[in-house]
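This section describes the prediction task in plain terms. A model, or a person checking by hand, is given the sequence of a single protein chain and must write out its three-dimensional structure as a string of tokens. No templates, partner chains or ligands are provided. The sample shown here is typical of the held-out split.
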Amino acid sequence: MFGLTPLEIFGYVGSVLVAISLMMKNIWYLRWVNFWGAGAFALYGLLVGAYPVFVLNAFISVIDMYYIIQMRSKKDFFSLEPVPEGNSFLIQKFLDFYGEDIRKHVPQFKTESVETGSKVFILRNLVPVGLFIYTPKPNGSLEIELDYVIPDYRDLKNASFLFNEQRLAFKSQGFHSFVTRSTVEVHQSYLQKIGFVPDPADPTIYYKPI
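The expected answer:
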């Protein structure tokens, strides 16, 4: 392809991965993509005898893996902060700031639910990283209007805390299942990773028992 050897293509792939990693907002994914890119470029440098390239990128790979292990083993403190009715100023600021990203991942979200639904901020080490808005239904289900986490903290730990560790708290309120709707492939993949299953009659509706 374009007169390149397989080895040269391999080197370019490593370079592209490094470049892509530098454009990522999520530090977890940035480290992983940068690790594979630097590792590939290090191997390329070794194979072509460019030892300074090998040493630099091997060092970068080691640093990336060090921080990946640190992030994986770090113990975060999670908590939920309910927002009282009529106190939606901070929520509106949050929605305005992340509005474009919310519309991209949850296009069905309606701002009217801010006034009518129950609202909870997800705090991670006292930082508000997510917003959870839901509506209780008479049949005992909890309909999720919005489950949004800011880009820098999308590593499923927030979801695990909310849907697994807080399960008994929701159950004690009389809920028996979470239900939500999604037409976005990335969001659907996220839902399935945390245990939601699609409705056979309507694959845009997802359920998770509490």
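For orientation: Residues 78-209 form a domain with the Aminopeptidase fold (CATH 3.40.630.30).
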